[in-house]
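TlpA disulfide reductase family protein
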Amino acid sequence: MRTLLICSVLFAVSACHKPAEQSPAENVAASEQPAGPVKGVDRSHRGQAAPDATFKSADGEDASLAELMGKTVLVNLWATWCAPCVKELPTLDRLAAAQQKAGGVQVIAVSQDSGPHASVEAFLEAHKIQTLGAYQDEKMALSGALGPDTVLPTTILLDAQGKEVWRYVGDLDWTSAEAAKLLSEAGASGKL
């Protein structure tokens, strides 16, 4: 009985124990922790030249962003395993089709998957993505050159001189008014 009473008292005391309050210094240190990339427009890289990184073109040949200079280019970094990437692909595909028809911004989506090139092609086909080619950065050279804070999806608008205008972190409906407004910043029409 005495053992039961002692155990009950210990349990009651431990259950009521409140964790110590953090000191103001600890609270400040916790609030200064980097929060990571925030979804939305990031203009902190504006004016930077497109990285000189090699990836695979839709035909599976070596390609780089330098080959696209002379036109406005929207570069989307995505992966088959990234749910937000897959969610936005159909709207990006519709934008690419409209821009191709109008002679507007060139839209490329560069997969960050490390599997065979044929698997990216099969994924796009299975998801009925008709305009976007199977570009692939299987060594992640392009995403690595864009900086350590690059998350998927990230979409970058490059002007005709190959300079970054902005990058959009996270998924976006590329058929929306917000996307059209963003694309207009480089003289590109986002209208469908």
